[in-house]
Design brief:
The protein has 157 residues and is an all-alpha fold. The protein is built from five helices and no strands. Helices cover 78% and strands 0% of the residues. Bound molecules: fe (ii) ion (2 copies).
Length: 157
């Protein structure tokens, strides 16, 4: 195998980095004084953007690849994951209509954090190993597509 080409990060590394980033953002959110509404709003917006882009690239590129793996569980795992994304997107939508500091906002934010962390953990534990069963070329291709679609959605290109 030729290693002359600089390798992109693996697909699962890229997704894990997003998981870590959102986890850090939830922690940042909790460290900001409740009275600092603007500070909380700004972190919330970052969480919203990251989760929206992350879910979209998984649903468009990563999950369909996982579904192609020779694994009996893959179909059910993906269905459950898409359902979890749907619930998180619904919470994000509801949160967007509320103001940080309000009881309803803080309660929903806590529930969303729990849902997101649980989902990311299950994804890494149950779905990533199925993806790793695909052949190397396909995994590399998926990594490149995830990266470029992510950049595109973030408006970086
Ligand atoms: Fe996900
Ligand atoms: Fe994920």
């Amino acid at each position: 195998m030729s290693d002359t080409k600089i390798r992109v990060r693996t697909a699962t590394t890229l997704l894990k980095e997003d998981h870590q980033e959102v986890k850090d953002l939830f922690e940042d959110y909790e460290e900001i004084e409740e009275a600092d509404g603007q500070g909380r709003e700004s972190i919330f917006e970052q969480i919203k953007t990251l989760l929206s882009v992350h879910s979209q690239i998984e649903e468009e590129i990563f999950y369909p690849a996982v579904a192609r793996a020779q694994d009996e569980e893959a179909g059910d795992l993906i269905k459950e994951a898409r359902e979890e994304h749907r619930l998180v997107m619904q919470l994000l939508e509801e949160l967007s209509g509320l103001t940080p500091g309000e009881d309803a906002f803080e309660a929903k934010m806590k529930v969303m954090k729990e849902n997101v962390l649980h989902h990311a953990e299950e994804e890494q534990r149950d779905i990533f190993p199925v993806f790793d069963g695909l052949d190397r070329d396909e995994r590399d291709q998926i990594a490149e597509r995830l990266q470029s679609r992510r950049r595109e959605l973030l408006g970086e290109i």
